[in-house]
Prior knowledge:
By secondary structure, this protein is of the alpha/beta class. The protein has a domain at 83-197 and 245-333: 3-Layer(aba) Sandwich (Rossmann fold). The protein has helices at residues 7-43, 53-65, 126-129, 139-147, 161-171, 189-194, 200-212, 217-233, 241-246, 251-262, 319-333, and strands spanning 76-79, 83-86, 89-95, 98-105, 108-109, 119-123, 151-153, 177-184, 248-249, 271-276, 284-285, 290-291, 298-300. Strands 7-6-8-10-13-12 form a 6-stranded mixed sheet, with helices on both faces. A 3-stranded antiparallel sheet has the order 3-4-5, with no helix packed on it. Strands 1-2 form a two-stranded antiparallel sheet. A hairpin with a 6-residue loop joins strand 12 and strand 13 (298-300). Helix 1 (7-43) packs across helix 2 (53-65) and helix 2 runs antiparallel to helix 8 (217-233). The longest helix has 37 residues, at 7-43. It is elongated.
Amino acid sequence: xRPLLNSTNRKRLAHALGFAxxxxxxxxxxxxxxxxxxxxxxxxxxxxELPWVSPIQKYIYMKGARSLWQHKSDCVDFDAxxxxxxxxxxxxxxxxxxxxxxNFSMEGRxxxxxxxxxxxxxxxxxxxxxxxxxxxxxxAAELQRLTSRPVFNLGVASYGTVRELERLEKSGVLDRVDTxxxxxxxxxxxxxxxxxxxxxxxxxxxxxxxTTGKMxxxxxxRMFVKAYGYAFSSPFKRTKTTVAQASEDFMPHYxxxxxVLEKHASLKNKRVLIFYNNGHGQRFRSFPIGRDTSLPNVxxxxxSIDSSGYYRLDDHMTPAGQKATAQQLFKALGEHR
Length: 337
């Protein structure tokens, strides 16, 4: 029986495998160097728009390098019902792309001197609170300027609708407003499906974990190992996350959201506008537009912000994105007519 490969072909194969091994080793070393350079530049606040570097920097940033507002003990206080609430007064909150000071009172984040008249309560998560922008740059503050009505910014990072409405009920502003604007986020689903306030003991445990937990050396090493894997493979694949999120069906979110709203009789005599912001490119299918069929005081409105309205790494709205949101909400309110 004749051999499958003669001596010449075996040599060629050996050379090819040797070349492939050298190329793979070189690429592995290059990936490590690009990862290291991306990390060092990120630490220095340098975020160049480069094909290989940019996605690596975003991966590192989102997986552990960024500061989280709700993890800062000088920014939050324990609350038995909602885990944490903003600490009254000023709080410094910085990340690679922004340096901000947030000011909170019992009425929420500062929106400027309140005009007279019936007001608007704005509730939501970090997008509403104004993560990454100054007090006067948050869309609630801009909406107050546009409407000449008092606007109360009760948004708090990481809250779902259950805690957002609990905060609204406890804020003392409900009797001073006739309109509630609710910013929804895909992250709200789990909390809304549970549709309950946890016990004080559960919330104390969560609060302690949130405000005292630090990344261990083991977790940090694991993050870098995963980051290396991402750096190695990212040039050969397209990111599918945005596509998957963009096609997410809103219907499960809608059902849970309506169930939460129905528990709050205090909203029945208010006009309630609902819009969503999940971050750039993360859109819903089947998001309803117009008056709700089961709750006639509820209206769903579409707000569209392009990529220039979001921080490239952080994925929260820039001052420009916040301003565009306020302008579109102002139009939806119909008070410009």
